[in-house]
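Tutorial, part two.
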Amino acid sequence: MSEWLKGITLPLVGDLNDIYLVHLTIDPRELSDVVPKCMPLRLVDGRAVMSLVNVRADHFRPSIAPAFAGITYRAIMLRVVIEDGPWNDDGQPRGIFITNVYLNKSLVNRGFKTFTDQRTTLATIDSDGTRLAMRSGDKFLDYELDESRPDAACDPRQQEIAEVLDRAYTVGESGTVRRISIARDKWPLKPVHLVAWKTNLFETARVECVFKVTETIPYKWTRFEPIASIQAEGTVVMHTAVTR
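Running the prediction step on this input gives:
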């Protein structure tokens, strides 16, 4: 039944606001328990890259429903950048593997768990974008940004990665690899200054860059499409009909 539910296509729409991307680098060994071996990590100077997203989704609803019928929620998404080039026609890596999504609405949390293979966790999230205080059990994440200061420094390699990410992957208990496209018509990024950072989500994380998406993004969510299966020996076998 759960596999069948993940195949349902129910287009959802909404507006993404207060979008901030925090790019971290992490010792790859710290991710060994949360990223499957079939998802090869993309490394920068020997460290894995995580693109952490803080976003508010407004008027989230089925596409046939009016905006006033939608709900608003905030999500903190932990996305590890992977080397998915061999799975893409142009050979270029553009993918992320979602290790966890912290959500502040129980209905949305249940929906993510039911209709996707994403790991989700209910959390208290207090944020206006430039300031974040997240709590989930004994886990916490706090940061503060300063957008008034000009010329925030950023490793150009991190900005290059942030600008091309357009597909996300999950792996189900059955070994099914699923992928969803991330709409990238316009995601204008502006580096901003990090003033404070404190968390116990990671042990080896180092903040490299923080970006603000400077426009509201009208967004359409579709289902995660099954694209491959993991064999007993751990290899990934792509489905022949997959468009890459």
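The mean pLDDT is 89. In part three we will examine how such features are distributed along the chain.
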